[in-house]
Design a protein that fits this description.
The chain is 44% helix and 13% strand. The protein is α/β, with parallel strands linked by helices. It has 2 domains: 206 residues, 3-Layer(aba) Sandwich (Rossmann fold); 191 residues, no CATH class. The strands form 3 sheets. Strands 10-9-11-8-12-13-14 form a 7-stranded mixed sheet, with helices on both faces. A 5-stranded parallel sheet has the order 2-1-5-6-7, with helices on both faces. The chain has a two-stranded antiparallel sheet with strand order 3-4. α4 packs across α11 and α21 crosses α22. The termini are far apart.
Length: 533
């Protein structure tokens, strides 16, 4: 009996010890990558590299929960067959990769890609097989999945910026990589981290003389951005079975004339009667509104529709009446937003088979974002002037920088895999002229580039209807832009809605207060030019 009690106590003690060890086991975080991960050029590298500073931040937030190790190796990249002198460049060949696999990490954070510049462009010129970069990256991550099936990945989908004077400064390659990096993240369930945004405004201050490696302060910024990504709840992949037979999904994109709701055009007796009539019609149809600001979808009613896009709502009402279908408005719009904000940087940096930019003016903007944000490159002076004053206002200038509307709206729609029926594009005022006295048109080739790019971007590679609302009559020099709108619409097979020829607009107001004629023209144009009934 005594021996039995002793045995039970011994077993209980062992169980307590085992339970303590399990609870005390730390989450293993492996930082893999190149010289930026390694901490090249940082005086006290063991303590001030970004992995070391990440460890400090995690300890301050959740003491004892994480163990971070640095597996960086300078000069390494993704391509397995790329050479650096006489040695392989690919990180997968390195002893650090093998050591990380032996450690069996729970989390892997990767910043690879920048050392593949010079090789990556070959995928676009035919010198390399298209997709090799993404394929080699997936293979690298699969190695970690083999040793730990529950491993979580974080990868830099937007690489840290380069400063002026660095070899690949203004190269399109880091920006072209973004689509492949996002694809890798999507197919491996990785969380993407944007390292451009937190570093862009301080690159001259935190990068070493070589214009690429961050100093101690820059490493801290990287660690903070990484911590933020780790602490945010991951977006759950939840794809509903979209109804493609009894519904239509219209991407409603643009600036203030797409943004403004009927509540802003509800002042006079005539306007009140007009709005009341529209809301009565809304009651009888099924119109839903997805807002990129909130990520939520609501069914529109007279009570909640007044602050939603007046043009979009009126278009949706009429489509619903004609088709007897539910109409979903996928809303991505902000007052004053220039076309560049709706474009991904990879689209702006697109190249042809010779590696030459397809959109040279847009490529110059995308690869020089810091200057753009400093208001030196906005072709429209009004946007440049208003941007710093309104920055932080989420209803407007917060969304104006390059790719902001794309990253937070268009990309999210694609992530949710909405089956888009067509695109409503009501934008142009912020790209048509300089908006200074004397107000003159922006360069014609710039206008054509932005319009061609946005048609391709918002269509997403599908031949869906693209409805381009032409600039209406007003006492501004918009003639050239209207001509460009017509030309590009014809080239791209888009639907151009000629509001000027229809006599629509207000000579004194950039925001026509009656959006119904605009919506009716758009619906009629869609009916005439497509098979959508």
């Amino acid at each position: 009996m005594i021996r039995g009690i002793s045995l039970n106590r011994a077993l209980a003690a062992l169980f307590v010890i085992f339970a303590f060890e399990v609870s005390a086991a730390k989450i293993k975080v492996a930082c893999i990558g190149d010289s930026i991960t390694f901490g090249y050029g940082i005086a006290d590298r063991p303590n001030d590299s970004y992995p070391a500073q990440l460890q400090k931040l995690l300890d301050a937030k959740q003491p004892g929960k994480y163990e971070v190790r640095n597996f960086g190796n300078s000069g390494r990249g993704i391509y397995l067959d790329s050479m650096r002198g006489r040695e392989k460049r690919g990180f997968r060949w390195m002893k650090e990769h093998k050591a990380a696999l032996v450690w069996k990490p729970d989390i892997v954070i990767s910043n690879l890609g920048i050392n593949d510049c010079g090789e990556y462009i070959k995928e676009y010129t035919g010198a390399r097989k298209r997709g090799q970069f993404a394929g080699d990256y997936r293979d690298l991550l699969r190695d970690y999945k083999k040793v730990n099936k529950s491993v979580r990945f974080y990868i830099w989908t937007k690489l840290s910026p380069l400063a002026e004077g660095q070899k690949f400064y203004r190269s399109p390659e880091p920006f072209l990589m973004q689509k492949d990096l996002e694809s890798v993240a999507e197919t491996t369930d990785a969380i993407g981290i944007d390292m451009q945004e937190p570093l862009r405004e301080v690159i001259d201050e935190v990068l070493a003389k070589d214009k690429i490696h961050p100093d101690k302060r820059g490493a801290k910024i990287i660690a903070e951005a990484t911590l933020k990504a780790m602490m945010e709840p991951p977006k759950v992949k939840k794809y509903a079975r979209w109804d493609v037979f009894n519904c239509e999904y219209w991407l409603c994109a643009g600036q203030s004339n797409m943004q403004k709701g009927w509540g802003e055009f509800n002042a006079t007796a005539a306007e009140k009667a007009r709005v009341k009539s529209e809301m009565e019609r809304l009651k009888k149809v099924d119109v839903y509104f997805w807002d990129f600001n909130t990520g939520k979808t609501i069914r529109l009613t007279p009570q909640n529709a007044l602050d939603k896009s007046a043009f979009g709502v009126s278009f949706a009402i009429r489509r619903a009446e004609q088709t007897k279908k539910k109409i979903y408005m996928l809303y991505v719009a902000a007052g004053g937003a220039p076309t560049e904000s709706f474009l991904s940087e990879s689209t702006m940096c697109a190249v042809d088979g010779n590696g030459k930019p397809i959109y040279p003016k847009l490529a110059a903007i995308a690869t020089n974002r810091r200057r753009l944000d400093k208001n030196r490159d906005f072709p429209c002076a009004w946007v440049a002037r208003e941007y710093p004053r309104r920055r932080g206002n989420k209803s407007e200038a917060y969304w104006w920088p390059v790719s902001k509307m794309y990253d937070n709206g268009v990309k999210e729609i694609r992530r949710r895999r909405y089956p888009i029926t067509g695109v409503l594009w009501y934008q142009g005022e912020s790209n048509a002229t300089t908006c200074v006295k004397p107000d003159v048109p922006t360069p014609r080739d710039y206008q054509e580039e932005t319009l061609r790019a946005v048609v391709d971007e918002l269509r997403g590679g599908y031949g869906i209807p693209f409805v381009m609302i032409g600039l209406p009559k007003m006492n501004r020099p918009w003639e050239q832009y209207r001509e460009v709108q017509k030309k590009v619409a014809k080239e791209k097979g888009a639907i151009f809605v000629d509001t000027f020829a229809a006599g629509l607009g207000d000579m004194r107001d950039v925001h026509p207060r009656d959006k119904i004629p605009f919506a009716e023209l758009a619906v009629e144009a869609v009916n005439r030019r497509t098979q959508i009934k």
